[in-house]
Amino acid sequence: MGEQQHVKFPQEVIDEYAALGIDIAALFSAGHLGSRMGMQIVEASADRVVGTMPVEGNTQPYGLLHGGASAVLAETLGSVGSMLHGGSTKIAVGVDLNCTHHRGARSGLVTGVATPVHRGRSTATYEIVISDEEGRRVCTARLTCLLRDAPAATS
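Predicted structure:
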């Protein structure tokens, strides 16, 4: 997912995962799918996750940003927020994603901002607003993740 060293994580999160020997940038990414789509997470905390994605390469046959691409960006950002809320002892698994597409985007970058709606012990829900470079809302999404216990480390 691009240059992960530019992601802004809270220092306590960096310290928590570093103590466990976990590569936080790799853990909080969209993996191969995010790389193929050109996604970059630029800021990440349990309170706010921000990421970008180019429109080019992520369009449908009419030349507009594909709704599925917006859904991938939304689920990625909401999942990162949920994982950061759950901490190193939990994993976040998406169980519900709802996307409303408001307008098309034909070029440039879209930016998604995920903010919490609910953060509990077993679930976390984030609203994700995706906007174009002019600040116009392209998509509004809501993601709910189940927070499960992380598997025990094997030696």
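Summary: The longest strand covers residues 137-149.
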